[in-house]
Amino acid sequence: MAVRNDNPDPDETGHKGLGSRAPHFIRRHPALHLSWQVAVFLVGLAVVALGVVLLPLPGPGWVVIFLGMGIWATEFVWAQLVLRWTRRKVSEAAQRAMDPRVRRRNIILTVVGLLVIAGLGGWYLSRYGLTLPWQLS
Fold it and tell me: For 87, how many CA atoms within 13 A lie in the half-sphere containing its CB?
């Protein structure tokens, strides 16, 4: 279990301490701090739920989900740890993507995929013209 550190000052690694980022006057009163945590949780939950709804729809679903996680991370250690892990994994993936061999492979796969799509589109146009599939007889 993570140790709660209510000191939001950056440590030697550049990370802020784990724990609540609530103002001091809120952290000083347990009942007020609990109500603050409930409010932060509910706002974060609403934002994450909106992000989940946006996933199958055209929109920034993952961005909204991570925004909700960021809201939770202002108050909850578990969310702070999840965001640190996510940042580390995204950074590692970005470094791997910049590897020349990986970039070359991705470019080749993209070109082959586009050629296949263009070939299928050309075949369809040569066979049926501009007729829509549901209007074929």
Answer: 9
